[in-house]
Description:
20% of the residues are buried. The longest helix has 7 residues, at 72-78. The chain is 8% helix and 23% strand. Strands 1, 2, 3, 4 and 5 form a 5-stranded antiparallel beta sheet that branches. It has 1 helix and 5 strands; from the N terminus they run E-E-E-E-E-H. It is mostly beta strands. The site of zinc ion has 8 residues, from loops.
Amino acid sequence: MDVLKEPENEFKVGWCPICNQGWQVIVKDTDTEKLFIMCEECLSLWDHPLNIKMGKKALDKNNWIDEVIPAYREIERAGWVRYLVEEV
Ligand SMILES: [Zn+2]
């Protein structure tokens, strides 16, 4: 049997400063293959981990993406591994 992707495999990078209720996780836009950070709860979107502590830096909701959870190697390629946080 194939191993299904569990939600726990999400790549967390921070706690959302906008809603203060959800993790910010790395997602990939299936159209452009570009990585983004999205809040699991309010679905706010950021384009880089350096900006995720700032609610003001969230992207406009018009920047809607068709997101999937990326593979770990894609996060490595983007150089974002250093931003991952351990869940406590
Ligand atoms: Zn949020």
